[in-house]
Amino acid sequence: MKKLVAECIGTCVLVVCGCGTAMLVGCSAEQGGGYILTALAFGLTIVAMAYSIGNISGCHINPAVSLGVLMTGGMKVNEFIQYVIAQCIGALVGSGILAAIFGLGGIETGGFGANGLDGVHGSYVAGLLVEIVLTFIFVIAILGVTSKKANHGSFGGLVIGLTLVLVHILGIGLTGTSVNPARSLGPAIVASICNGTADAIACVWVFIVGPLVGAALAAVTYKALESGK
């Protein structure tokens, strides 16, 4: 139960800090400052959570990461399911907190950091490809840095956080960067409720399927490379 609570809290913090920053500063490619700040917010949140709850739950706070860990033998199926549920609950709570903060503060809420396909001109195929590739990069980095054979000392959380910054720098202008189904689902649901439109929900499947496929490919690739040593 402690692991699940940790995953819920970690995912909540990721949504509040990452999506909240995107809502506050904007993250269009034309606004370079907001773009970089959003990327850093997501990455630095991972760093903070890795060093605070990593020793409790492993700090997955992402169903795609949990899938990669599952496929490489790091957890059992029932534990994976529980992790995903806790992560999705955390994302919903985080999005609700943002709705309360921005609503009570009279601040324009926009899409609550929900992902979209505007950067790829509405192409589902392009959006899927972006999310598959970026999640592959992110998850294979996590599997490598957390491997028992790795010797990164206490720098693992920093490496993972910086990798998330990296994929956000490329992906924000394309899909808003998900690489995390829970992080996409929570804001999409709350945005649809608060804004009264189904725009965010209509394409959320891309940000569930893409990251999961990318994570599965990363796990298969990492296992093949590791076994070939």
Please explain how this structure is put together:
- There is one protein chain.
- By secondary structure, this protein is mostly helical.
- The protein has helices at residues 2-25, 32-57, 63-71, 77-104, 124-145, 156-175, 181-195, 199-202, 206-227.
- α3 runs parallel beside α9 (206-227).
- The N and C termini lie far apart (37 Å).
- The mean pLDDT is 91.
Q: Which characteristics define this entry?
A:
229 residues; mainly alpha; 74% helix
Share of β-strand residues: under 5%
Q: What are the segments in which pLDDT stays under 50 over at least 5 consecutive residues?
A: none
Which range best describes the helical content: under 10%, 10-25%, 25-40%, 40-55%, 55-70% or over 70%? Answer: over 70%
How many strands, what sense, and barrel or not for the largest sheet? Answer: none
Number of helices: 9
Structural class, judged by helices and strands?
mainly alpha
Q: How many strand segments? A: 0
Tell me which oligomeric state these chains represent.
single chain
Topology:
Blueprint: H1 2-25, H2 32-57, H3 63-71, H4 77-104, H5 124-145, H6 156-175, H7 181-195, H8 199-202, H9 206-227
Give a brief description.
With 229 residues, the protein is mainly α. The chain has helices at 2-25, 32-57, 63-71, 77-104, 124-145, 156-175, 181-195, 199-202, 206-227.
